[in-house]
Design brief:
166 residues; 7 strands
């Protein structure tokens, strides 16, 4: 499958929303409030700012397969550390879409002068994400026990993952 990463436009949100909503309401991988409305989720995900970027992964036909948003992890003295969130449509999982989004984000963070990347809340039972991040050079620097209430597994940990860029 040919996958292209491009900056998301406002017109992309209605195609992101269905899988965003399904992933969030499943309560298995994201700490976002499952009662987010279309508009609230759009405001959260589309992150319009000069310091932020939202992308989509599209196939040759232009179908949105996944999305990522990236931003400084913290403001002010912490703004040299990047962070990001990624979602892949269930229909496109296992096809390298998440990896392409992640590689693009890592390249963006380096080009923007970030010194490192930190993911604050990777659900420890999200094995495919943990494996991907580790394959891309991230390491688990800590786990907050029982910090996430998984819909099927109960309380599980959240990993903090880190990758230097310099």
């Amino acid at each position: 499958m040919t996958v292209q990463i491009r900056v998301a436009t406002d017109a992309d949100w209605p195609t992101i929303w269905p899988f965003f909503h399904d992933i969030v309401t499943a309560q298995e991988t994201y700490v976002y409030d499952p009662s987010l409305t279309f508009e609230q989720a759009e405001s959260l995900w589309m992150t319009p700012s000069s310091a932020n970027r939202t992308t989509v992964a599209v196939d040759a036909d232009g179908t949105v397969l996944g999305s990522a948003n990236m931003y400084p992890n913290r403001p002010g003295p912490g703004s040299h550390v990047a962070s990001a969130s990624f979602m892949v449509s269930p229909a496109a999982r296992g096809q390298g879409v998440g990896r392409k989004l992640a590689e693009d984000m890592i390249a963006w963070a380096g080009q923007e002068g970030f010194r490192s990347i930190q993911f604050n809340a990777v659900v420890e039972t999200n094995e495919s994400a943990v494996h991907l991040w580790q394959a891309l050079g991230f390491r688990i620097i800590g786990t907050v026990p029982e910090a996430f209430e998984h819909a099927k597994l109960g309380y599980v940990g959240l990993h903090v993952m880190y990758r230097p860029l310099v």
